[in-house]
Amino acid sequence: MVHWDLATTFEVVCKKGSGVPDVVIVDYGAGNLRSVARAVASTGVDAEVTANPAAIESARALIVPGVGAAADTMANLNAGGLVDPIREYIASGRPFLGVCMGMQALFDLSEEGGEHQCLGVLGGRIVRFPQGLTVPHMGWNTVRLANPHPVFEGVPADSYFYFVHSYHARPVDPAVIVGETEYEGVTFPSVVGRGNLLATQFHPEKSGTDGLRLYANFLRLALEQGSIAPATATA
Amino acid sequence: MLTKRIIPCFDVDNGRVVKGISFVELRDAGDPVELAALYDRGGADELVFLDITASSDNRTSVYDMIARTADQVFIPLTVGGGIRTTQDMRTMLEVGADKVSVNTAAIERPELISEGAYRFGSQCIVTAVDAKRVPNTSPDAPQWEVFVHGGRTPTGRDAIEWAREAVQRGSGELLVTSMDSDGHQRGYDLQLLRAIADAVDVPVIASGGAGTADHLYDALTEGAADAVLAASIFHFGTYTIASIKDELASRGIPIRPPRPASDS
Prior knowledge:
The structure holds two protein chains of two kinds.
Chain A: H1 7-14, E1 23-26, H2 33-42, E2 47-50, H3 53-58, E3 61-64, H4 70-79, H5 83-91, E4 96-99, H6 101-104, E5 107-110, E6 116-117, E7 122-128, E8 137-142, E9 144-145, E10 160-165, E11 167-171, E12 177-183, E13 186-194, E14 197-200, H7 208-225, H8 231-234
Parallel strand pairs in A: 1-2, 1-3, 3-4, 4-14, 5-7
Antiparallel strand pairs in A: 5-6, 7-11, 8-10, 9-12, 12-13, 13-14
Chain B: E1 5-13, E2 16-17, H1 32-42, E3 47-51, H2 60-72, E4 77-80, H3 86-95, E5 99-102, H4 104-108, H5 111-120, E6 125-133, E7 144-148, E8 153-158, H6 159-168, E9 173-178, H7 190-199, E10 204-207, H8 213-220, E11 227-230, H9 232-235, H10 241-250
Parallel strand pairs in B: 1-3, 1-11, 3-4, 4-5, 5-6, 6-9, 9-10, 10-11
Antiparallel strand pairs in B: 1-2, 6-7, 7-8
Helix pairs in contact in B: 1-2, 6-7
């Protein structure tokens, strides 16, 4: 059981009684939606799980979960009229967290089951692990951060996170790679980010205490400072 | 480096753990939620719940159990037993399971695997293969037959062929149980594990026969399994998750170390 001492702080920050949700988890039918909502709830923060584009517009912290296939994910985001609101939210520079397919969808296109246009927020494509490897890459693996990141504060180096995926990102600009993971000789970006945007290939909501700490850090920084970016990036 | 997964398994009936469990630190040894939290703190990498509830019309208890577990335990949860339709899958995933395991219903109607993989993604469709050695096949070239209904009913299907088909249909993982070894604590069927691991490119979970840390080591090396599932050795306290992990790690198996006690 997890008790965050930050919960009290959050209550003050979050419950202003305005009726407008600060933390929004985008509901487009992603398989891990409930798990992400549970992880956020465990940090003591009230979040709204919603498919309403208006809630995204007014959010102060946005989380896009995701698991499954790229084509489905994009089809569902499109059908829900969520593509533009998510793009606009990210363009506005407010704190954003993407998880697994919620990370992959940020790139230009995915090669999963053909070629599928994605959100195009980050340059690059989503490619399959080479033939001959056991896929999915499933289980606990370590993340090596290129530089310290505020959202990883308090998470010991070489901590393990839970992965399950058959495709990985290949960004155009290596500067968006926040952390890397090695699987069977393939090194791939397991955390990407730029400014107030951060996204993980692994599932923090299924990665025990360290995973929950990422949600807690993200929410605390987003709600208290309006920024999750490393100091160098905000300067 | 990707680590090998250590997975305790619970048999649950009407929302209660039924295999004898005797931990002094548990108030209620039959409560799956409390047990799941204990194993999570001890360093379990995933949890598998096998619902053996005899009557299929009483599913509410298991849904409630999964929901309560998922509220407190933030590692992957797999649920098997009685999953017959994609609607069963949907309900189980919605209440909090991360993966569902199919067995009898998939043999009867293999499209269930493809439909589930299409709707929810391969990553959450586990096919459980219960296999038994075909009598009188050579020990050098053994064959295995798939059994269903908890190992009671032979199907005439070859286990390796079925494993291949399940993966082709979209299963993202196989849970391979040797019916010959299950319950005997004399080790996994390493030949069976190896034959299936060589035949497919998805992760294989070894099940059936764990009695010592050596058995787990053998399954992960000689058996080429990606994960090992065990019940009795953990439930009866022969090993803790941490003691098994320490031993495997000391023998060079990549393992996610158990967290220091102060962090739990």
